[in-house]
Write a structure and sequence with these properties.
285 residues, alpha/beta, D-Maltodextrin-Binding Protein, domain 2, 2 domains, five-stranded mixed sheet, 10 helices, elongated, binds fe (ii) ion
Length: 285
């Protein structure tokens, strides 16, 4: 899970809006230790269950995981407040972590120092664990990488009419639009959205469908996260005629969406929680 090198601007952008964490009091030393680490996970079970099992196997620490959407988990933590049984909150995006930031403890340097500053909370309460890169997927029979624009802004050009696929209801797409609003401002973001719509994009339900459509030649380009292509290449082989393009000019079309984790100030199991975060940041064996 050593993917933090991918993580950049979105975390810092979202951090810019977060509050500075005030002084906080460590839990009393006399607090009894729990036997089991409780993780509230906004990351899906299919994605993180295997690595959590690996943590338990390697440390002997039992982990009880509650899975739900990140915003639902954040709301639960806020509602439970000091009575929350959660030791660790593992969230799909920085927004979820920011929402509960006042309930998170400052992380030790042994954790924070493993993650570049732009990929973690500015007040030290959470770190990025993994990142999903936004990319442009293009059909390699129709286009070369050099044909693609520096910035996804340029897909508003009428020459892309009828050639673009997108999945506008997808959560990662919407997070990219949030990055646009931060980087470009509301008006330019609105212009991009209406400009793409004027180019009659084909609408797909999700990222996998977008990448398959590019490979099938239904559209020339689409805007998913980076890893969908790899799953399809694994299944269909290297001859599948689509590849990722990381916009050379950066910008919101090249943003990295961060998943991260923090430890609850009320945790009675902070040592185990710290080991959990250290494990999640360690290199895959
Ligand atoms: Fe995804």
């Amino acid at each position: 899970m050593h993917r933090n090198k991918w993580i950049y601007s979105l975390a810092s952008l979202m951090l810019a809006a977060t509050l500075i964490f005030g002084a906080c009091t460590p839990a009393a030393e006399t607090t009894p230790k729990k036997q089991t680490l409780t993780v509230y996970s906004g990351r899906s079970e299919a994605l993180v269950k295997p690595i959590i099992a690996e943590f338990s196997k390697s440390t002997g620490i039992k982990v009880q995981v509650r899975y739900a959407g990140t915003s639902e988990m954040a709301a639960t933590i806020l509602e439970e407040g000091k009575n929350s049984p959660a030791d660790v909150f593992f969230a799909q995006d920085p927004g979820g972590l920011g929402a509960v930031e006042s309930l998170l403890m400052p992380l030790p340097d042994s954790i924070s120092n493993q993650v570049s500053p732009q990929f973690r909370s500015s007040n030290g309460t959470w770190v990025g664990i993994s990142g999903r890169a936004r990319v442009v997927v293009y059909n390699t029979q129709k286009l070369k990488e050099s044909d693609l624009p520096d910035d996804i802004w340029d897909f508003t050009d009428p020459k892309w009419k009828g050639r673009i696929g997108w999945a506008p209801t997808n959560a990662s797409f919407q997070a990219m639009v949030t990055a646009m609003r931060v980087l470009w401002g509301q008006e330019k973001t609105r212009q991009w959205l209406t400009g793409i719509q004027a180019n009659n994009p084909k609408v797909y339900p999700n990222n996998t469908a977008q990448v398959n459509a590019v490979g099938a030649g239904e559209v020339d380009v689409a805007m998913p996260n980076h890893y969908y292509l790899y799953g399809i290449l694994r299944d269909k082989g290297e001859s599948f005629p689509a590849r990722n393009y990381y916009p050379r000019g950066g910008g919101p079309g090249a943003v990295i969406l961060v998943a991260g984790a923090g430890i609850l100030e009320t945790s009675q199991n902070k040592d185990a929680a710290t080991r959990f975060l250290e494990f999640m940041l360690s290199r895959t064996r």
